[in-house]
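Hello again,

I reread your note about wanting to compare the complex against the isolated chains. To keep things tidy I'm splitting this into two emails, and this first one only covers the full assembly. Below are the input lines as submitted, including protein chains and any nucleic acid or small-molecule components. They are followed by the predicted structure of everything together. The single-chain runs will come separately.
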Amino acid sequence: MANTTKSKGITQLKNPWLAGLARFLGLFVLVFIFFALLLWAFGKNPFKAYADIFLNTLGSSYGFSETLVKMIPLILTALATAVPSRIWLINVGGEGQLHIGAIFATWGALTFSSLPILILLPLIAALGFLGGGLWAMVPGILRARGLVSETISTLLSNYVAILLVSFLVFGPWKDPESANYPQTAEFVEAATLPAFGGTRVHLGILFVMAALFIFHFILSRTRWGLELRAMGVNMEAARRSGIPVTRYVVLLMFIGGGLAGLAGMCEVSAIQGRLRPSLSPGYGYMGFLISWMAGGNPWGIVAAAFLLAIVTAGGDILQMTQGVTGSVVNILMALILFVVLARRGRRAGGK
Amino acid sequence: MIESILGSLLIGSIHSGTPLLYATLGEVFDERAGIVNLGLEGVMLMGAVAGFITTVQTGNAALGILAAALAGGLFNLFFGFLVITRKANQLASGLAMMFCGVGLSALVGARFIGSKIQGLNEIRLPFLSDLPFLGRVLFNHDLLVYMALPLAFLVWWVFFFTRWGLSLRAVGENPTAAFAAGKNPQVLQYQALFIAGLLAGIAGAHLSLALAKTWSEWMTAGRGFIAVALVIFSKWHPLWAVVGALLFGGAIALQLQLQALGVPISSFLLDMLPYLLSLGVLAIWGRSRRHAAPASLGQVFRGTE
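Full-complex prediction:
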């Protein structure tokens, strides 16, 4: 977001740029110290906590692969926000779109389980995309008609989507064989995204690369991307110069939602192997924040997703090694965001 | 039979609607000052956990409410620091505050999971509580329920009949004009955010002290977001907020009632009601709603920089 102001800011700050960076990094150090003090205040050993987090995410090749595993849904949901944000649409519904994508993919995986892998996998990926896309299209249409702001409608539809997953796995789709667990039957081999030797890093990473590449390429190298940029600057002017604004609003919401849906498909197919209510620890919301931190820049998205992937993976680790609830890392994530928010606000204005 | 079902439904909607009303009134303060607060969920959680812990430690639910309000107010002041002083993006700051509240309340409350409290008990009013039907439905509640309706009127009075309320609304509509008229928009916004935090904190306390009487992680379960929707539903008006909160509380209560009656419908589908209801209403009200929104909502006042 705020591309114009950003580039202006960098030229202005050419000299103090390094000083600014140093101050920024200093703030991050403060964040980590503050979080350490907080853990210490609640009787945990902060040194061991950080050692656990970093050794288990960056310290070993397996740990690093687990960070990559988290980056897949984070980047896809970040793009789910970044794509519509090109024309100032605010999609806070990545979480719900992810869940609906997972539902569509699960339906495909359970219904067509006898198909060969080369047909079934693309099919459920497409279904996942379609599910998330359609779910996001509704707020898009409501917005295009000037009825409901997409911010509030995507936010509310998250809850509907999450409840829909619970309804399905507790009810009609519940696997009779997994007695008390609310989950569907396990996916067949042909519906499982293959992982790379010994890790959980799965083929979904190709979706991520393709999505990032297309996002970058279309926006910077095509006429279409330019049209979007023109719209982003002034929607009313674009409308008058004959750009079909309404169609773009719906289309970009569809693509954004589709990418989040794809993230949902990856999670059920490669990570969970079935549909469960505990599908996502808030990937959709984190994706929104990542896209925002990165200002919609593809490289920034990768970097911010990497950072938050470490934090998210760190939550799982702390839960195991320190016996604290995993949501404690939400504090660390929030602190990092506060630093970025407080600085960005000064530089580029609020919107 | 009918009377008892109707009665339970009404009681249920009052119970479930009360925390929604407090939170919604809080968000009305936020938004009348021109600030969208998606972090309400986090503020409520901080209130819920602070209230619960204080009540466990002191055995006094009134102190619990006080602590909850203060925790919410202070937490929201920090949100104010981000969006007012640092001029940060409001939506992103709100979501970050939500994550912060979820994490912090989980960390602080971990030791108190499973603790038992007396909590806020029903207060019976002389004479009124003995009325047939009405006494049971309207006059057998805890303190926070009794205070909710007068509070809504108080907020209404503050907004529309006091100088401070007028100034605050002016800031929400056009901070530059308010500034030119000699008001300090930032001070007014901080004041509004503090009050909003107090109210959202009390909303959280009502959940943990009166309804659940326990603490559990993320016990607000999206009520903060419902409150954000309710503000739009009620057109930023504190008295419409009462109607909205009762309606949404009713949707929650209906779901509990149907379950109790053994109606074979999934509770998860019924849980969707409040969200679908808000979406439906927002879509139907559509454009007419636009004029009701504070004009500078979501924008940053950059003052004289």
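For quick reference: The longest strand of chain B covers residues 123-124.

B.
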